[in-house]
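Progress against Task 2.4 (sequence-to-structure conversion) is shown through the following example record, which the project officer requested during the mid-term review.
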Amino acid sequence: MITIVLALLAGAIVISLASYASLLLWRLRGLRDSRSAEQAAQRVQQQRSANSAKDNIIILLRVIEQGQISLTEAAIRVGAYKMALAAPLAQLQAFTVFERLANDTAHIPILDRWQALTRAEQDAFDLQRSGIEQRHQQAICNAAAQLLTALRADTT
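C-alpha cells generated for the chain above:
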C-alpha cells in the first residue's frame, strides 16, 4: 500500500515539475518572440531614420549648390544627419570636408549665445566665418557633388 502511495506521490511530483517546465518554456518562447518583434521594429525605425536623413542631406546639398544656405550651417546639419545614415553611406570620404568646416567654425557662438553678443562681436565672428567658408568653399562644392551622386545612387 505504501509503495502505491509513494508511486502516486512520485508521479504527482513528476507531473508537477513537467508542467512547471512547460510553463517556463512557454514563457521563454514568448519572451524570445517579443524580443524578435522589438528588434524587427527597431530595424525598421533605423531604416526609416536613415532614409529620412539621406533625403534631408540631399536637400541640403541641393540648397548648397543653389547658394541658399551658409556653408557653416549646412556643414553642421549634414554632420548631424550623417549620424543616422547606415554604415556604408556614413563612411563616405566626402563627409570629412563638412566635418572639417564644422570643426573650424565650432568656436563661433550660436543661438542664445549669439544673441548675447554685441553687434560688433557678431560682425567680427561673421567676418571670421566668411573667411573660413571661403577657404573650404571649393572642397565643399566638390564633396557636395560627390555626395549627391552617391546618395542618389544608393537604393537601400
